[in-house]
User: What shape does this take?
Amino acid sequence: MDTKGEGVQVGVVLGSASDLDKVKPLFGVLDEFGVSYEVAVISAHRTPGLLEEYARSVPSRGVKVVIAAAGLSAALPGVLASLIDIPVIGIPVSAGTLDGIDALLAISQMPPGVPVGCVGIDSSRNAGLLAVRILSLTDTSLAKKLAGYRQGMAGKIVEANRNLKEEGYPVWDF
Assistant: This one.
């Protein structure tokens, strides 16, 4: 979604261009719910000045949530959270020898006073859904879409149990 920086609800920052494939499901979620977003590649280690410039621009542009994806030492979400006062969601990206465990620990173990919401390794869909939940607190239309989405998920579970029963499995009767 090309927004030219205006009316952007969610900022998505990737620590590296190589993170893009792992984050693509996030864009599908935001598109599904009609949430506007922008994407940038900014490294906390290689381009700290650019990261600070981006963070300074966020409040004036009305961005409500920032999602930051990073692997390895994964400083990006934490540095962003130290620079801005809106929710930051971190996506630990599987990379390197520890395949994302290091990133998960780095993002989830923030010092007191600098919280980062952390989803599972490569769980960009959940990052998108968490952003939608945050935005739905002040957007009734989005809250209704989210409720419909959750009802749809519940319906799939009920259907799965029906299918098991039809196939002759002894299903718990609820």
